[in-house]
Design brief:
- Helix content is about 65%, strand content about 5%.
- It has about 475 residues and is mostly helical.
- It has a three-stranded antiparallel sheet, covered by helices on one side.
- The longest helix is centred in the middle third of the chain and has 22 residues.
- One of its GO terms (cellular component) is membrane.
- Belongs to the peptidase S54 family.
- It comes from Alkalimarinus sediminis.
């Protein structure tokens, strides 16, 4: 189950510049700095295989895993089974990847290798293996800047926050960073927000390390810092009731609750997953530490250094009108109950009272398209296209235009002027293929005049001249000649 606070709407007039900067740094670190990791690991595996080390180390590694499981120091039972199977099938390359990335095993071999091999074998092994580790494994980003609980360094407490284990890990963290960051940044201000974010990551990492102090597995990722933002978020709102989005399986919805009431739920879930959940690579205690650190910082320093900006408490435009929120909530409730006719009446009334709120018109459009034979559907399509063009919301305009034509096909009631408007809007927004589709629709329109079509054709020719697309220029010049 996932619960996310969504009380505040993003105001692009005051963009979250620091949050966007942190996201950019994470992305650049992943694609520029961490991009070398795969090459380093492949080179390490090549040398490891060339030295026939899997045959030497794999049986010892299996014994190492099984011993840890027996002594309850290790819970990697599935890995032990997979290693045993790989040894039997002689899957040397897979074993190489697994063994090379297990630092604890390497440290054990350095200290106890003579218990498994003769002294001369151990000496030869150590020379080859140490070279591979020093030249390749130790230079992998997670080893250099990841947080290793058994070898904590101050630089790693900052560095690990900007490393990620894969594109999915990065994407998930950056989405949550953005969703939470813009609100907390507005509340604290850019500089305090950055310091608080990094400090939450440091405390989160220390909390994580405290529960696994002997581990040599590096911790990477911004999730501890982001959990800190979640803790700060609910602490900022305190006992005020705010909206939360939740996702359970395939079901999702919103609910309101006192902000602080969710904090123990979050912390409890992370601790439960750590102690009783299935084994995984998720750093549950880092999340729990971040949540506690974020909330604790606001409670302890909220009246001094971490004081909330006064402008943060100024209500948004929609919050200034409680009547709007009440009626809007009712309209959405009617939609969820599939009372579509009543919902249309509600949204129509809201749009009449708030004509600048394009969202109400968008709701009406989606409700009307349930019966695209109704005249109201055609009317609201035109209204929504006009409103989107007026507010320069190109994506909404284009989506509405394409969706409408897909549904009605030859029964379209769009006048020539709408196809023309869409064509020019597409050109302004560098969407040349959509502009061509609008031209095709314009050409098929029964009321099109040669002059309008000729002008549109000329505009497309000029656009393709800028792009130096000779074939397209010739194509539309041929069309012009036929008019």
């Amino acid at each position: 189950m996932l619960i996310i606070p969504v009380e505040r709407q993003l105001d692009w007039r005051k963009p979250p510049l620091m949050t966007l900067a942190i996201i950019l740094i994470n992305v650049l670190v992943f694609f520029l700095y961490q991009s070398q990791d795969s090459d380093l690991l492949e080179s390490a595996v090549e040398e490891y295989l060339a030295a026939d080390l899997p045959e030497l180390e794999a049986p010892v590694y299996l014994d190492y895993l099984e011993r840890g499981i027996r002594l309850k120091k290790d819970d990697r039972m599935e890995l032990a089974t997979a290693v045993a199977d790989a040894i039997e099938k002689k899957e040397a390359e897979w074993l190489a990847y697994v063994i090379l990335l297990d630092s604890g095993f390497y440290v054990m071999l350095v200290e106890e290798g003579t218990l498994f091999w003769q002294n001369d074998t151990y000496a030869e092994w150590k020379q080859v293996r140490s070279t591979i580790v020093e030249n390749y494994i130790d230079n992998i980003s997670a080893r250099r800047l990841g947080l290793i609980p058994a070898e904590i360094q101050l630089s790693d407490l900052i560095g690990y926050q900007f490393l990620h284990g894969g594109i999915g890990h990065l994407l998930g963290n950056m989405v949550f960073l953005f969703l939470l960051g813009f609100t907390v940044e507005r509340a604290l201000g850019k500089s305090k927000y950055l310091i608080a974010y990094l400090l939450c990551g440091v405390l989160s990492g220390l909390f994580f390390a405290a529960f696994d102090s002997e581990s040599l597995v590096p911790l990477v990722g911004a999730s501890g810092s982001i959990s800190g933002l979640m803790g700060m978020y609910v602490a900022i709102f305190g006992l005020q009731k705010i909206r939360f989005f939740y996702f359970l399986g395939v079901y999702f919805n919103y609910f309101t609750a006192p902000a602080l009431a969710i904090l123990p739920v979050w912390v409890g879930k992370e601790i439960y997953d750590y102690w009783l959940g299935e084994a995984s690579r998720i750093a549950y205690m880092a999340h729990a530490g971040g949540l506690i650190a974020g909330a604790g910082m606001v409670w302890l320093l909220g009246k001094s250094w971490l004081q909330i900006n006064e402008e943060f408490y100024e209500p948004d435009e929609t919050e200034q009108d409680e009547a709007f929120r009440k009626h809007y909530s009712k309209a959405l409730s009617l939609v969820s109950q599939m009372e579509f006719k009543k919902a249309k009446v509600k949204f129509a009334a809201l749009y009449k009272e708030y004509p600048d709120n394009i969202g109400m018109l968008e709701h009406l459009y989606h409700l009307e398209k349930l019966d695209h034979t109704d005249e109201c559907y055609h009317q609201h399509t035109k209204q929504l296209i006009d409103a989107a063009l007026k507010k320069n919301v190109f994506s909404l305009m284009l989506e509405t235009y394409k969706d409408y034509l897909k549904r009605v096909d030859s029964e379209s009631c769009l006048d020539v002027v709408y196809h023309n408007k869409v064509l020019y809007a597409c050109l302004r927004n560098d969407s040349i293929k959509d502009a061509e589709r609008a031209f095709d629709n314009l050409k098929k329109h029964p009321d099109i005049s040669p002059d309008v079509l000729r002008e549109a054709c000329q505009v497309l020719i000029q656009e393709f001249k800028k792009r130096q697309q000779t074939m397209k220029i010739n194509q539309y010049q041929t069309v012009m000649a036929q008019l």
